């Protein structure tokens, strides 16, 4: 007697939520000949496919088997189990606004978005000025700061832009788009900003033994720093740099009520706030939010400072001073670090399994692509960061992926400018013929000009027009 059994696996609860249903009359659920898959077998087979699924916690698996043998029957050990049939319950999101914050691992996120958008031929919002790679940061974003979209629509924005709700909501409507950003522990983030941007020089602390520590002990008043911001734009990040990038004005930095309200406002605006200290978990949340695949979030760390540029140890006193100087940023980080882990917990046990698979695949790709050693990459003019060198024996089919994962933000912006220009050319009129050497009306003679030069055949005709002396000799071959 043959019985059709159907199994459904609930990843969120880690249990089989529907056991079986007999498809032939007379077969009861308690019949000893029905097949029962054990929970361990369910988990094992689910793990095999987990890396290939776009969203494990939202994917329903159906296991179907036809067998007349009980589980402990000798022949059942050789019985081939059926393939699963996945039923995806979400579609990839292709409208993403990434608010890029400074020194938070955001360049690596930008590379991921650039690769995904390029692969899927999506349209990027790019800065209007060809010589710039930011949207006139530190000014708040405006639609007029972006290059024309030519009715192609906006899919991804991922270059430095200061948050501004109204114009960003205009380009990326909330109902169809996802808003994401990333934060970092304010102690390490501020140290990185201060030293990478060389704040000590314009602030007058360059000759101090510990420029950062000394500055925090004796910070100049705002009215002394403000004029310096016009010549050194990066100094806009001199206090609470993450909240500044996210759009909060200096006037509110010491107003606890205003800071709390703004954090609550950001909580409503952003669908995902990632945390650098938990980068892999952040990427997996991103993958699930956007309904992408694991291969879409593979990465190499980009724009990382050279080891010699890093402050090896931040002593406790300096650390506490950083916290005091950037209290608003700490409130921001504390709030979203808490919501981050609530989000992770809500994913269920499948999250940790997929995280393990993701890390394994990322490490394997790193070993396959990159040489070991110390290499440099020019992030900006005269500014060098850690870079990579590709192995010579990387297979051709994988080489392009490896190269794109190493590509920095500036290279991608140049590439996308050229790509959108090529799209425009396909719908434009042909180039003007004015400078074309073949552009000559003598190419045909159907409508040749025949001037009236003599009165032959008519008594009333005009007299013959003599050829001007100025034209004598012209047109004759030497």
UniProtKB/TrEMBL annotation:
Disordered: annotated span: 68-88, 435-478
Compositionally biased residues, Basic and acidic residues: 435-451, 469-478
Membrane disposition: Single-pass type II membrane protein
UniProt main location, coarse: Golgi
Family annotation (Pfam families): Gal-3-0_sulfotr
GO cellular component, one term: Golgi membrane
InterPro entries on file: Gal-3-0_sulfotransfrase, P-loop_NTPase
Biased composition (Polar residues): 68-79
Signal peptide coordinates: none
One function term, GO molecular function aspect: galactosylceramide sulfotransferase activity
GO biological process: glycolipid biosynthetic process
Transmembrane segments: none
Protein keywords: Glycoprotein, Golgi apparatus, Membrane, Signal-anchor, Transferase, Transmembrane, Transmembrane helix
Localization of this protein: Golgi apparatus membrane
Entry's family note: Belongs to the galactose-3-O-sulfotransferase family.
Stated name of the protein: Galactosylceramide sulfotransferase
Source organism of this protein record: Stylophora pistillata (Smooth cauliflower coral)
Lineage of source species: Eukaryota, Metazoa, Cnidaria, Anthozoa, Hexacorallia
């Amino acid at each position: 007697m043959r019985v059709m059994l159907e199994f459904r696996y609930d990843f969120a609860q880690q249990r089989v939520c529907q056991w079986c249903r007999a498809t032939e009359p007379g077969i009861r659920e308690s019949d000893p000949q029905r097949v029962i898959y054990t929970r361990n077998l369910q988990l094992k087979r689910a793990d095999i496919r987990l890396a290939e699924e776009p969203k494990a916690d939202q994917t329903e698996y159906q296991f179907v088997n036809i067998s007349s043998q009980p589980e402990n029957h000798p022949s059942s050990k050789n019985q081939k189990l059926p393939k699963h049939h996945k039923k995806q319950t979400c579609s990839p999101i292709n409208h993403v606004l990434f608010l890029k914050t400074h020194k938070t691992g955001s360049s690596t996120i930008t590379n991921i978005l650039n690769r995904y958008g390029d692969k899927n031929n999506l349209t990027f919002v790019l800065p209007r000025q060809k010589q710039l790679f930011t949207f006139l940061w530190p000014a708040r974003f405006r639609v007029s700061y972006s290059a024309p979209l030519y009715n192609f629509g906006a899919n991804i924005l991922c270059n430095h832009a200061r948050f501004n709700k109204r114009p960003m909501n205009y380009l990326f409507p909330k109902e169809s788009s996802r808003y994401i950003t990333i934060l970092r522990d304010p102690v390490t983030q501020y140290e990185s900003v201060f030293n990478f941007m060389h704040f000590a020089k314009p602030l007058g602390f360059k000759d101090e033994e510990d420029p950062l520590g000394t500055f925090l002990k004796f910070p100049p008043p705002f009215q002394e720093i403000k004029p310096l911001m016009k010549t050194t734009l990066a100094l806009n990040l001199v206090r609470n740099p993450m909240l500044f990038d996210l759009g909060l004005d200096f006037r509110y930095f010491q107003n606890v009520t205003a800071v709390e309200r703004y954090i609550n406002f950001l909580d409503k605006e952003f669908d995902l706030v990632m945390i650098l200290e938990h980068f892999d978990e952040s990427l997996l949340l991103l993958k699930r939010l956007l309904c992408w695949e694991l291969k879409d979030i593979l990465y190499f760390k980009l724009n990382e400072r050279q080891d010699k540029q890093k402050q090896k140890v931040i002593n406790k006193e300096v650390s506490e001073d950083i916290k005091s100087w950037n209290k608003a940023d700490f409130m921001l980080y504390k709030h979203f670090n808490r919501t981050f882990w609530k989000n992770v917990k809500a994913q269920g046990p499948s999250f940790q399994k997929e995280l393990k698979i993701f890390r394994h695949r990322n490490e394997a790709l790193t070993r396959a692509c990159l040489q070991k050693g110390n290499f440099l990459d020019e992030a900006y003019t005269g500014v060098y960061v850690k870079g990579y060198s590709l192995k010579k024996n990387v297979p051709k089919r994988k080489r392009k992926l490896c190269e794109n994962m190493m590509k920095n933000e500036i290279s991608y912006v140049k590439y996308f400018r050229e790509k959108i220009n090529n799209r425009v050319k396909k719908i434009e009129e042909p180039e003007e013929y004015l400078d074309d050497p073949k552009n000559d009306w003598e190419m045909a003679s159907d409508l040749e000009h025949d001037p009236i030069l003599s009165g032959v055949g008519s008594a009333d005709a005009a007299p013959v027009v003599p050829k001007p002396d100025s034209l004598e000799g012209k047109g004759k071959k030497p």
